[in-house]
Task: inverse folding
């Protein structure tokens, strides 16, 4: 099919990279944002702007709050559809738990309630959850959208396409393509070490764009490779659902055997019983962790088969001091407080899996590494964006001569996914600060602002990339940069106006989640201004020179950098 | 502080490795003068190794390699951008090498 291996790799890299690049851009960018999802939440939900708290006392604070927990209304409605009629008045609570990390001021509390009258599923259940302020036990109103954790983060791995888990599959396929693109990119490149530090911004646009593409791809190659791979490992259960298909009997037998081996009751006994002091169990768990040489805080605590003789309490350690994501769970008999089982050290295979998962999900406490992850993610964005630009730069003159619009439409899509995505991201933040607090379904409006802004940006990009047909630079890039600058500054100002937390206050208080957000927004706005000005200068130069077709300049990659 | 040193030595190592290449040597010195390539490579590799050791001192054994790999990535970007826009800033690294050479 192709005369040489390199040409076949080039074809693969170009076309798979182009098509899946749009998805990868989203995955990389929102992945980079998700590194600081909790901090974005603090910015978006001003009521929760206080210091992270340890797990509070179960006996004193949490137990009465758990007792008052209710199932979520939307879950009940879905359950009614499953049952095909009204639900029983009594929905016995099955288990509950609480979860926190070293970055969470709020504590997430959750519970499962049994639905006893579903003829098709005796184990049918619904969930309840909310967040509390662990200092006072006050429930945080749940009509607020946690933009970081509940919107940007799912965007990273599912694109918010829930139907048939389609988003997971698309992102998974994109990750696979990413791995192929990295390998084929290395084959194409040939001078990896000789040109490792090569970036020639003053060469013609195609050359300098390619330099930046190679630079951001190669120097962060380990990051790109490991993150694409570990992302696939995390969702391997979705991509290879063998536990649900061919190996289902084995998987079930294994689950039962595991439960028996641990001595943890699979089902309630049906005999009511009380619960011993959970605080004492927490003490014991901490003592055991310290004995193993890994003292730590409680990250998650669950109580299963509540009020039953078979109840048990599982206490997991917050994994903030190492990469590997393991809980070192200690499990206690509920009524007596006796230790039933302590999770053993993981096997070698499980250890690798835990390491890759932990590396990707980063529960650890290491701010420098977190920022390095953002850098890696943004380098990935820059790599993909410059890939788009190179694609267009390489073809636009040829397409203009032929009168075809291919390069123009690719440019329109590139503008939409690069700068348009930034506009959408800033739009949701601006909407978050602008919409009235008492607005019903406020979170939905915020999401609407995100998608609406993106659609507008797409429409604008399609309109203002028309000059690409004459092999000129699309004005859409610069105009989007101005929009980014305006929205970025607006978000910071609105945060100040609506909450009073301006930068001087947050920095002097040392409250970095909000200060960092504001500084990052301002930096993005400044970079967007620089890019817009350079693009304009280039646009006018190129406009004059377009007839001779001599537009060569360093500006387009600049835009790509800003865009990331 | 140790982490800062680790990142800084990582950057130094990459800058020296870059200086060992004739293109970048020309960018920084502006001359085609003979460069102590072997010494530069040796220094660069040593600095990178030192950076890794510092990472191991600063962090848990599972965390250190990640920090190091990412510090190298960030350092390489910084070296490349400095070479592109302000190559003269890397000049102070040269006399020091000569002194040790």
Result:
């Amino acid at each position: 099919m192709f005369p040489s291996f390199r040409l076949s790799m080039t074809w693969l890299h170009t076309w798979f990279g182009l098509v899946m690049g749009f998805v990868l851009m989203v995955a990389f960018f929102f992945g980079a944002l998700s590194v600081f999802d909790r901090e974005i939440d603090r910015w978006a939900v001003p009521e929760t702007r206080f210091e992270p708290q340890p797990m509070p006392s179960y006996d004193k604070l949490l137990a009465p709050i758990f007792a008052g927990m209710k199932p979520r209304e939307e879950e009940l409605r879905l359950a009614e559809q499953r049952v095909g009629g009204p639900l029983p008045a009594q929905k016995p609570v099955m288990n509950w738990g609480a979860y926190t990390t070293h970055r969470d001021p709020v504590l997430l509390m959750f519970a499962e309630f049994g639905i006893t009258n579903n003829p098709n599923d005796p184990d049918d259940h619904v969930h309840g959850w909310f967040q509390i302020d662990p200092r006072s036990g006050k429930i945080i109103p749940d009509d607020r959208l946690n933009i970081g954790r509940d919107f940007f983060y799912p965007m990273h791995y599912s694109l918010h396409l829930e139907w048939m888990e389609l988003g997971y599959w698309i992102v998974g396929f994109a990750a696979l393509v990413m791995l192929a693109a990295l390998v084929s990119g290395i084959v194409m490149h040939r001078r990896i070490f000789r040109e490792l530090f090569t970036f020639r911004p003053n060469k013609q646009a195609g050359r300098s764009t390619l330099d930046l593409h190679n630079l951001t791809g190669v120097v962060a190659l380990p990051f790109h490779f490991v993150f694409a791979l570990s992302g696939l490992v995390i969702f391997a259960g979705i991509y290879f659902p063998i536990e649900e298909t061919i190996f289902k009997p084995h998987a079930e037998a294994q689950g039962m055997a595991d439960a028996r081996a641990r001595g943890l009751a699979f089902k309630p006994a049906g005999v009511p019983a009380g619960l011993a002091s959970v605080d004492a169990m927490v003490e014991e768990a901490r003592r055991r962790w310290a004995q193993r040489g890994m003292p730590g805080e409680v990250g998650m605590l669950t109580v299963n088969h509540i009020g039953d003789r078979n109840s048990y309490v599982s206490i997991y350690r917050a994994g903030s001091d190492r990469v590997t994501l393991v809980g070192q769970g200690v499990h206690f008999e509920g009524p007596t407080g006796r230790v039933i089982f302590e999770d053993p050290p993981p096997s070698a295979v499980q250890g690798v899996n835990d390491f890759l998962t932990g590396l990707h999900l980063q529960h650890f406490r290491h701010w420098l590494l977190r920022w390095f992850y953002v850098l890696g993610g943004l380098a990935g964005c820059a790599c993909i964006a410059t890939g788009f630009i190179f694609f267009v730069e390489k073809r636009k003159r040829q397409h203009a001569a032929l009168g075809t619009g291919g390069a123009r439409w690719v440019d329109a899509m590139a503008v939409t996914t690069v700068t348009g995505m930034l506009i959408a991201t800033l739009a949701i933040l601006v909407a978050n600060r602008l919409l009235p607090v008492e607005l019903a379904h406020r979170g939905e409006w915020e999401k609407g602002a995100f998608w609406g802004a993106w659609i507008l940006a797409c429409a604008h990009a399609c309109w203002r990339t028309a000059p690409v047909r004459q092999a000129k630079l699309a004005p859409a890039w610069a105009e989007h940069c101005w929009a980014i600058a305006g929205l970025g500054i607006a978000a910071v100002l609105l945060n100040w106006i609506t909450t009073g937390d301006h930068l001087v206050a947050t920095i002097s208080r040392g409250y970095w989640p909000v200060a960092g957000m504001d500084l990052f927004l301002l930096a993005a706005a400044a970079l967007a201004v620089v890019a817009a000005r350079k693009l304009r200068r280039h646009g006018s130069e190129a406009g004059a020179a377009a007839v001779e077709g001599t537009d060569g300049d360093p500006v387009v990659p600049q835009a790509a950098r800003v865009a990331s | 502080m140790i982490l800062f040193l680790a990142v800084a030595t990582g950057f130094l190592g990459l800058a020296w490795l870059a200086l060992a290449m004739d293109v970048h040597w020309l960018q920084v010195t502006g001359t085609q003068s003979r460069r102590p390539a072997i010494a530069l490579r040796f220094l660069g590799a040593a600095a990178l190794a030192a950076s890794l050791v510092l990472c191991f001192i600063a962090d848990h054994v599972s965390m250190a390699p990640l920090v190091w790999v990412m510090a190298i990535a960030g350092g390489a970007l910084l070296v490349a951008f400095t070479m592109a826009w302000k190559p003269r800033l890397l000049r102070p690294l040269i006399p020091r090498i000569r002194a040790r050479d």
User: Anything to note?
Assistant: Residues 275 and 335 of chain A are 4 Å apart (CA to CA). Strands of chain A lie at 93-99, 107-114, 125-133, 138-140, 298-304, 312-317, 330-333, 339-342. Chain A touches chain B at residues 194, 196-201, 215-216, 219-220, 222-223, 321-324, 355, 359, 364, 366, 368-369, 372-373, 375-376, 379 (CB under 8 Å). The mean pLDDT of chain A is 88.
